[in-house]
Sequence to fold (150 residues):
Amino acid sequence: GGECGAGHAEHSPRVDPVDIMLAVHDDKVLLARQPAYPPGRYSALAGFVEPGESLEEAVAREFMEEAGVEAYDIDYVASQPWPFPSSLMFGCMAKVREPALTVDYTELEDAMWVDRKGVEAAMRGDGDAPFVAPPPFAIAYNLLEYWLGI
Fold:
């Protein structure tokens, strides 16, 4: 926070918590694409943590709402500040019991499970990879590296 004006009141900027999350099932990860993404780009799912909700509850809710999968064994991995707007992104991994997807097409353009070979190819930038990886500065990229054990 910083001081402001004659009242000397403390003003703390608001920070919105956002979950960025990878679901894992059978050595595959769940990736999705939003219409605003560059062509071919897929990334981890994401969503705002709502007031009164834990990170884990938000992850489970978002996976259910956006992809129709039930997440469990949710682990926090890493965080990243994101200034546009002022968000704090929490990277999480989760396991999924049943891989069948029910995609919310109002939120996502597509979602799919990708195996290790496909993720490795995308991270290398191979032209025949099943998707274009998120950029290296994105926490989704770090989550994919974490999953690959890089």
Q: What stands out?
A: Residues 40 and 132 are 5 Å apart (CA to CA). The chain has three helices and eight strands. The two ends are 37 Å apart (CA to CA). The beta strands are 2-4, 9-11, 16-25, 28-33, 45-48, 71-82, 87-96, 110-115.
